[in-house]
Amino acid sequence: MKVAQGCVAVAALMLFAGASGAQELLTNGGLDSPGAGLVIDDWTIDYFKTFTGPSTDGVTLEPWADRLGDAGEFGAFFKAFQGNNTTGDLANVSITQDVAATAGVAYTLSGWARGEDNYSGLIPSTATETLLAIDFDDDGDATNGVLSTVVTDLVAAGLNNDWLQYDVSGVAPAGTTVARARVSMLNAYNNPDGGGQAFIVDDLSLTGVPEPAALGLLALGIVAGLSGRRRAA
Ligand SMILES: [Ca+2]
Ligand SMILES: [Ca+2]
Ligand SMILES: [Ca+2]
């Protein structure tokens, strides 16, 4: 009897653990396919320069940028050196992936990153921004605006020449249908000092956990909105 009860308890714990273990929402968060170069499977690359506009080769997959150095695997090399701080033609690169999302769910994006010592994002008073972000949107189009954004500034969070894990979290607002995982290097430029100046990223992960408090607030907001509308009418 005691053994059976113990088994039930263990089974219940396992079920609980399974239910609370957040599911990975990204595809190819490891940035490991299809191979070195300009294409990152399942991710969208947005690269433009301030004046000369859309461009290519702002970010590529490289074997030396793989965090754990697994054979045949890759990480993303963001090319700050493509920008020019003298002319002001700065490099702006984002990689994004859209996943279906639900209002009231708390999403967390994590990822590993390194900035080499002469990366333009690490120059004091630089214009370069280095961001891990989630954009909450009501469609698959970032160019027509988003509902809200949560951002972690990686330099403020301690970016340096060692692999460190960073994260950013936020609750999807009302109307959300898409959570857009994003890594951005904005206003980047070639460091005249030369030397190692890569910004590299690997092993991204996006998970969502329903937020009871947020759901409660959302419900309150809907009630308030309804009563407001009633009053107005
Ligand atoms: Ca990788
Ligand atoms: Ca790896
Ligand atoms: Ca949009």
From TrEMBL:
Highest taxon of the lineage = Bacteria
* Alphabetical list of InterPro entries matching this protein: Ice-binding_C (IPR013424)
Gene3D superfamilies in the record, alphabetically? Galactose-binding domain-like (2.60.120.260)
Q: Which residues form the signal peptide?
A: 1-22
Which residues does the UniProt record annotate as the domain Ice-binding protein C-terminal?
209-231
Tell me the keywords, alphabetical order: Signal
Task: Report what the protein is called.
Answer: Ice-binding protein C-terminal domain-containing protein
